[in-house]
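Input sequence (186 aa), recorded before submission:
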Amino acid sequence: MRIVGVDEAGRGPLAGPVVAAAVLLPENHDITGLNDSKKLSAKRRAKLEIAIRNQAKFGIGVVSVEDIDRINILQASLLAMHRAVKALNAPFDHILVDGNKLPQWEYAATAIVGGDALHPQISAASILAKELRDRMMCKLALEHPHYAWGSNKGYGTAAHIKALKEYGPTDHHRRSFAPVAQMLLL
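Predicted structure, token format:
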């Protein structure tokens, strides 16, 4: 069976988009060390990303901050997954999704909690999604250096919260998230 793995990155941060990837690994791939992206070093993830992009078929889905605020982060994550599968543009038989929810789609699919550590297809998707989102946040960090997005990737670290209080939210902050919403009320 041709199994596609799907995972997202960026559900918890206070800033930036949510990104999903769908990956179809070839049967004869020689990519070793696939695992949940959060369990890998940045250096290892970068090497694996190159190998995945060179050997696998993949699609990427991105949902903007504006859409996250409009439809909520869960729905935005599911939409990013849907977009990633549509972007894959390759035939497959089944999808394995990391988590406990599936997008509403016509595909045969299974949700697997912790699947990014169990199935290489989901691990590969986890790595692609995280690496792309991290690069997006590092690029935004150049425009908004006060928030330390180059290191915190938009998560609510002490440095990020301190900068949010001092400088206020940017257009890249999720206004529907409590720490940002509280800053808007001040």
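Checked by second reader. Helices lie at 42-55, 65-71, 73-88, 120-143, 149-152, 158-167, 178-185.
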